[in-house]
Specification:
The chain has 121 residues and is mostly helical. The protein is built from five helices and two strands, in the order H-H-H-E-E-H-H. A two-stranded antiparallel ribbon has the order 1-2. Strand 1 and strand 2 form a beta hairpin. The mean pLDDT is 84.
Length: 121
């Protein structure tokens, strides 16, 4: 995992508003506690609202808004497949799955998701 990916994952974990120990974060990211200490120091130095320290744990002091997530080709494929499966097998959620598929096809045309036919949306 690249450092950028790890830092992104750390921020995602910390966004829950709970206190997380360096050991817990290290296990989640598959790195050493020492790496987490360095990452947290770097994030705090760049202005992210991270509070805490060695032996205490880490927490975000304020909510943090991140830019929209970029999807990989495989993630888009899995999403589209899952939505089609819900449409076909779950009548109570089929309408919501069609609406979501339409939104994704409209917002991410490069994803190649076929929108549902107009009569279904």
């Amino acid at each position: 995992m690249s450092r950028d990916s790890r830092l992104y994952d750390l921020v995602q974990i910390l966004r829950d508003g709970r206190l997380h120990t360096a050991a817990e974060l290290a296990r989640a990211c598959g790195v050493s506690v020492r790496t987490i200490w360095r990452d947290m120091a770097m994030m705090a130095a760049t202005g992210l609202p991270v509070t805490g320290g060695r032996g205490l744990g880490y927490i975000l002091r304020a909510p943090l808004m991140l830019p929209p997530t970029m999807f990989t080709v495989d993630e888009i494929d899995a999403l589209a497949t899952g939505l089609r499966l819900v449409e076909e097998t779950d009548p109570t959620r089929a309408r919501a799955a069609r609406a979501l598929r339409h939104k994704i096809a409209t917002l991410l045309p490069q994803a190649g998701i076929d929108p549902p036919p107009p009569s279904e949306g």
